[in-house]
What does this fold into?
Amino acid sequence: MRNVYLDHLSATPLLPEAFEAMKPFFLDAYGNASSLHQHGLRVRDALAKARTQVAALINAESADDIFFTSCGTESVNLAVKGVAYANRRRGNHIVWSEVEHPAVMNSVEFLEKEGFTHTRVPVDPTGRVRLDALREAITDKTTLLCVQMANHDIGTIQPVAEVGRIAAERGIPLFVDANSSAGWLPIDVQQLGATLLSLSPHRFYGPKGVGVLYRSRRARLVSILHGGIQENGRRAGTENVPAIVGAAVAAEVALRDMNQRIAHVSRLQARLWEGLRARIPYIKLNGPEPGPARICNNINISTEFIEGEGQLLLLDLNGVAVASGSSCVSKSLKISHVLAAIGLDHALAQGNLILTLGRDNTEEEMDYVVQTFAQIVEKLRGMSPMWDEFQRGIIDSVISPTGRGKSFSEHAAAVSGKPAH
Amino acid sequence: MSDTYTLYNKTVMDHFMNPRNMGDLPEADGVGEVGAAACGDIMKMSLKVENGRITDARFKTFGCGSAIASSSMATELIKGRTLEEAMNFSNQEVVDALGGLPPVKIHCSVLAEEALKAALEDYLKRHPESAAKTGAAHHPEAVTA
It folds into this structure.
């Protein structure tokens, strides 16, 4: 069967060079970096090199500003909670965008229970943070701004440099979540004015089990994991040395191949969206058009009158791996909060798919996906009462309204007795 | 297929990929359409009734794999049953016949039961004489297409 992997946001295959670099640290160089003998010192040396390699990817001032954690989520938790607690005497207010990843969202909501306050900054219909609203949200008590580099769902590149200027003007630390985007666009923490920035190496061909947090020494940060004094006292716990070494090699290669990867994947992104748009009626791209406003590897679509999980399952049965923000796919039965934040109609959120491209995908694969997906849409629409009712003028299309029939949401509310959330 | 991983068990996947009784009945005696407020899925069921017995059933579903499989299985189970038996139909029968559903997807089988009941309501509204015989209660929340 075909194997077309379009879920690089969930995980990427490990880079062979990274795998090779990791190998000695399992069986041979197994020491603990905190040990003072040769086994420990060898590993300590490897960690120092890894810090330098990762610092280069984001142009950090110093390798000492790089902390290794267990995953991207831990990096976010350390940044958000670590800065909030460190500055508790100065203030208790956090400003964050409403399209942040759940790692940020749930960390902020945890802090709310601890007595912190926060303001959620809205986005425009393409998912871009509203800078005027962000400016207005800042108070004298604000100690942290959180804005992602690019959105994990719909690929919107955020105006981080502008936010960085606002942060600098007001003297407030800026945390940038680059977990879903690092490796897929150039990042320069100094140019951006980012005080903290998180990376997730398994999104750019590094291993799982390791995360990175960059922290400029301008920002105070307290530890949230208590124990030994690893990572300069900011993150207790024995370092996952093989994973860190693999992550560093992946970072080095990502920097080296950045332009080439972006050029290749951008071409595939345009081809995929153009193909889908041409072949399938009543389909919508969520987020900005492919180009400078959108990250190069993300396509987020809503196909009307059918639901996302069925699309995902049938694509999988045809060898195409994708993700979906539909409520049926979510364990909470809720649509993606990002799709809700951009004001996407519930019916369109239900028909949502997220396709994330990688360096090994080909143009031929994009054509196969378009062809296969067109057949799947036809099959599922044939089974959908909504498609039939649209043909008969009972309900209308959200994407291309005909002016006949009631809206999908009105219809859904009438048959379920309650409005869909 | 044997060495691939699937989200649902074999029976559910089979009913999702090869749904039974998918479509509409042109001369249906009862039609019901219901939606799940929890997730937004919509299911429509059409019935043919002869001499107090369901002789044919069709479905159309806007929903996930387990919603499609649940409606397919429900139409299979319900064919040949009397109206009275059908009024007592429970979603658990769908779950059992499918060999189980993930806990978060049980509501899909409930939706299949509700679609069936809505179609029966519609039939009984059109045939009040049968309603008296089955002693069926009217469900005001059911809306017919």
